[in-house]
Amino acid sequence: MLTARIIPCLDVDAGRVVKGIKFQDLRVAGDPAERAAEYERQGADEVVILDVSATHEGRGHQVETTARVRAELSIPLTVGGGVRTPDDAGRLLEAGADKVAVNSAAVAAPALITGIATRFGAQCAVVAIDARRLPEGGWGVVVRGGRTLTDRRAVEWAQEAVARGAGEILLTSWDQDGTRAGYDLDLLRAVSQAVSVPVIASGGADGPAHMVAGLRAGADAVLAASIFHDGDWTVARIKQALAAEGIEVRPA
């Protein structure tokens, strides 16, 4: 296994870090620039910022927030939310993002993935997939902050995204998000086995045991929000616990 990445996620709404359960009942959890800087001090490998209401509210991408965070951050930064065109992605990259995540707009117009990958490189194109378990089995793709269930299926959509140029998949379990019940390991296994690019596990982590399980299920990186925002775990302590389980991590 390559060195596992530990990635704090900053869900942002109106310039504030927020956190909820299954994308709902959001509570304020701080300033994104301050949070990002603290997580870098703790040893984070990357930071992800997602504007959780940009698509639902019809707002654009968050250039100002990206620039403020980049001013405090030296590690890789992925930004998503409200990106509808390659030009939108370009403005985020110019503001300091290293990678741009697309979700709802890519489901509606998959050529967006190819446009970003062709113009800026596959390494900049992250496709965020929010997956929800279906009664009949498998996982459907939800968009607009989890508000709309589409007719796409998560595994097949991940494969198409990679074929269109995605260099990474950010895979969130809608069912597990904010619950601290652990990642959806079946979902992780299914997607990681179906694609050749790195997969980031998201949704449900409560501590290092869940992260170890996610990495062993096929994830290349593990993302979490609540456990870091609430101060239950630091990145450094997570890395110590993972190393004790034989997971190779970059020293904090």
CATH superfamily: Aldolase class I
* Secondary structure: helix percent: 25-40%
Strand order of the largest sheet: 1-4-5-6-7-10-11-12
Give the class from helix and strand content and strand pairing: alpha/beta
Q: CATH class, anyone?
A: Alpha Beta
Distance linking N and C termini: 18 Å
The number of distinct helices, counting runs of at least 4 residues, comes to: 11
Verbal overview:
The protein has 252 residues and is of the alpha/beta class. The chain has one domain (5-244): Aldolase class I (TIM Barrel). It contains eleven helices and twelve strands. It is globular.
List key phrases describing it:
252 residues; 8-stranded parallel β-barrel; TIM Barrel; alpha/beta; single chain
